[in-house]
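Progress note, project year one: complex with uridine-5'-diphosphate.
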Amino acid sequence: MTFQEFKLTTPLLNALNDLGFKNPTSIQEKAYPVILSGRDAVGIAQTGTGKTFAYLLPILRQLKYADQKHPRILIVVPTRELVLQVVGEVEKLTKYMNLRVVGVYGGTNINTQRQVVFNGMDILVATPGRLVDLVMTGVLRMKSIQKLVIDEVDEMLNLGFRPQLMSFMESLPQKRQNLMFSATLTEEVAMLIESYFYEPITIEIENQRTPLEQIVQYYYAIPNFFTKINLLENLLANTSEFERVLIFVASKQLADRVFDLMDPKFPDQIGVLHSNKSQNLRINSLERFKNGISRILIATDVASRGLDIADISHVINFDVPDIPEDYIHRIGRTGRSEKAGIALTFVNEPEMKFLLGIGKFMNRNVIEKPLPDGLIISDTFTDEERPVLFDKDYLGKPSSIADSQGAYHEKKEKNKKVNLGGPGERKPRKDKPENRGVLRKRAAKKR
Ligand code: UDP
Ligand code: MG
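Model obtained:
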């Protein structure tokens, strides 16, 4: 199928042509008629399969020029970086159209944004917190919203935006089209859909727990933090293979710590991205990484959702996420637009249980990779790792007592025999919203 068959308007076809896109992806093909029909819809498709255009194309196809102030289309996304990305995508598609798009997000001067909002727009892209703040100031009116798109909603819940979500949903006109797009769908999200959507059509391309085939996944079993650092240095030194590397870490503190240790080894090649950095720094780190000025980006899960950066050769999980969805989203930053990608996960003994959980969730094994020859295995354990091994963030409370390497290796042998989720082993996962709520609150603080 080609975009020609979509009966798009000439300005849209020309914009797509400029971008070099001829054939819609599966989610774009399936979502298009449903969204045009006006029905509420939930689109579930794997990371990097073009969900943004899946909702933008039909919406822009139907949006007529109108000289009015208040937004008609509202797109809500979890992070500031995603606001900028989606605004950029709208701008690309509306290059030959007379439409105004505005992006608003927290961490910047609200008065400047009030002025921008006051000037009027057709499409508003926003993070939930700033959206609610702007509605409260009275400058932003929701009464003209015809279509609502919620992109990556589970991450908004992860970040604790549930009250804001409910608040702006209540302020929207009753008669509107609701659209939601994500790579994963949790039970919590399903409940939200139940409350706010009207008889939605679900468009699911592939089982949401299946990561893309083109992402090759390996793990390294590593005893401690300093050996992880050694391995990271060893891998990053291979500049010809590790061309563009996104490194995920469990917390903001850890991101800064890994940066401080790696930066002297690879000067001017590394950036950091987490929620404690100023907005300018966040944008700068991301831009430098996107443009290839820095080869390496160290980030918390704030960068795990939705970000579309071309040609990331490797995603490295410096630690193992305790929420399986986070793993799926993290590795989904590579292997985008049908390109190949490699995901490497560093696993210490206490984290092995999270990897097992992820294997079960995906119903697929992550293959162990032997440590490179000559890798220096550190026998130094960080303060947090000593005298007991610590939970995944190294900064939390001790979770298990083990006597350093001896116990680790024993366990490792045992783990080799553990099936990471073959068909015989598989049990349906119970998504208990209460339990997940606790995990989420902890997770949100670390981003
Ligand atoms: N893309 C594509 N064909 C299209 C539209 C987009 O190959 O018709 C590309 C797009 O440029 C981007 C990638 O697909 O690089 C992923 O898009 P998106 O971020 O929308 O993916 P998502 O993770 O939201 O599914
Ligand atoms: Mg997306």
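The chain has a mean pLDDT of 88.
Residues 51-52, 151, 306 surround magnesium ion (ligand 2) (CB under 6 Å).
No further modelling is planned for this target in the current period.
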